[in-house]
Write a structure and sequence with these properties.
Two copies of one chain form a homodimer.
Chain A lengths: L6 H11 L8 E2 L2 H7 L2 E6 L9 H11 L2 H5 L2 E4 L3 H13 L3 E6 L4 H9 L3 E5 L4 H12 L2 E2 L6 H17 L5 E5 L4 H13 L4 E7 L4 H8 L24 H7 L2 E5 L1 H15 L5 H10 L2 H4 L6 E6 L12
Parallel strand pairs in A: 2-10, 3-4, 3-6, 4-5, 7-8, 7-10, 8-9
Antiparallel strand pairs in A: 1-2
């Protein structure tokens, strides 16, 4: 069976992104290793442009368009990091970006997207697809989904390609899963490049659709979850689910208070500003499911982003 | 005139530290550059072992001792980062560390020093020197001052040596000044290795003894200052003052609220957990004294540490 991206797609994505994005650093901490009982290698996407991994997929999609398509602009709907990522990607390519944002999107996020030069349309969250369709009809812009898209998944895969080059011989990689763009990119990169590495997906216990989907062998829809990990409230997509089903070894769920504890440890010891969704991989490393495994000595942990509102810290 | 360290001392320190400390990264941010109106290169000491630059000087001093001296142990008094740094340095050399800490030192800092294996003696702050003298008489341990010491200054200089190698052609470097160990190391490294680079010292307006000392041409004692930058409350020393007087171009003072704003910008944009004392260099870059200078296009900013109490954030 063929997945959303094959190795050629991922290699092509890497070449497209290379002139624009530097590899993010991998950081380590003796004290966090001691807490987890193994060596951890933190792939630090908070240092990525836009403060999260999202630019990888957005930029790969935008750079994949023909000149003619690109000239008509790109379009997405998003309340969060992907909106900003697409705006940056469009600016890099020098084409228009249209972003449909919900009426209740935080003002700072709307301002950030506008600062990157995107044209913003506000609407009620429930109408976002129909409003996006109208913008598309009017402008001819290409719609770029935030995660359930082969070009986006191939772009997100470059994060794990870098990690595998930066740290050889990883026994496992822990990756957050929400909609699954980053997870799918990670699992596909591992599948092609380091098949003996175990891929572990981490999600909030309060938004455990991926764990339940995997257990049941079919996609369980995400109800409206209440979790501090706002990047992980989305359900799986048609491109991301088969990868979770086939190429991810297990899903580890993390309670809310342990997401916050993990985030705090990362701030205190690693000195990296990580958002709750970004910290969940370390939270998973501290769960019994992983703590009790002696065979996983060298574990990569993808810290997916660092866009947090300092006025609303959970500690 | 001869200063606390010559180039050979600094080169020797670098060689001593190299097996134990990796070079800390230099980070950049387009949005922070835009705020400052020039290109900034942030030398990130929060990622240093112990969370601050202090380990450089402590370790150079400990590794400079003869085997016989070292075997009797090392000793300091400190309420903060240097206590932890000396404990780590002693553990690296495998010798005993004794730390005199004030009764009101934060419990987390005391615990951190103890975790590194140091023997702690608590006493009222006013009696710290006499208590340290007693420990020295009893143990034969070598006293290591936290900043006013040639070995410590040579160690702190390695931070700037790295920065000069990582970023060529800096027009200026901004360095925090409290007691002056980091400042003196920085200015001496620049003096020997990049004499056309302008050294700017940054201090709190509420603890402006360095600015006043430089203006008057003599050391003005530090009164008990009230500043959030707890690492910069110390006065100048006999080894650090001549360097400030002769080799630092200017001292820029930063009001309290602008220290906090600078810290917040660094957390939000650079995603690095920086403490107030560590953020002051960026605060200085935003002051009129530097904002209005068109000749300083490429400026290094030393972010000296990231040990902050997350329960007492100023924002």
């Amino acid at each position: 069976m063929r997945y959303a991206a094959d190795l050629d797609d991922i290699v092509a994505a890497r070449e497209r992104l290379a002139p624009h994005l530097a590899a993010t650093p991998v950081m380590t901490s003796r004290s966090l290793d001691a807490l987890a009982g193994r060596r951890l290698f933190f792939k630090c996407e908070p240092f990525q442009r836009g403060g999260a991994f999202k630019i990888r997929g957005a930029l790969n999609a935008v750079l994949s368009l023909s000149d003619e398509e690109a000239a008509r602009g790109v379009l997405t709907h998003s309340s969060g990091n992907f909106a900003q990522a697409l705006a940056i990607a469009a600016r890099i390519r020098g084409v228009p970006a249209h972003v449909v944002m919900p009426d209740d999107a935080p003002a700072v996020k709307v301002a950030a997207v506008r600062d990157y030069g995107a044209t913003i349309t506000r609407c009620p969250q429930a109408h976002r697809q129909e409003v996006a369709d109208r913008v598309r009809a009017r402008t001819g812009a290409t719609f770029i989904p935030s995660y359930d898209d082969p070009r986006v998944i191939a772009g997100q895969a470059t994060c794990t390609v870098e990690l595998l080059e930066q740290v050889p011989d990883l026994d496992a990689i822990i990756v957050p899963v929400g909609g699954g763009g980053l997870m799918a990119g990670c699992a596909l990169a591992v599948h092609y490049l380091s098949p003996d590495t175990r891929v572990v997906a981490a999600e909030p216990l309060a938004a455990d659709d991926a764990a339940r989907s995997k257990a049941l062998g079919r996609v369980v829809p995400q109800a409206a979850p209440r979790t501090i990990a706002d990047g992980l409230r989305t359900g799986l997509g048609v491109h991301t689910w088969p990868v979770l089903r086939d190429l991810v070894a297990e899903v580890v769920t993390v309670p809310e208070d342990e997401i916050i504890t993990a985030m705090r440890h990362l701030w205190e010891r690693l000195k990296v500003v990580v958002e709750p969704s970004g910290a969940i991989g370390f939270g998973a490393a501290l769960q019994p499911a992983l703590r009790n495994r002696d065979d996983l000595q060298r574990v990569g942990v993808i810290l997916s982003g660092g866009n947090v509102d300092l006025d609303r810290l959970p500690f």
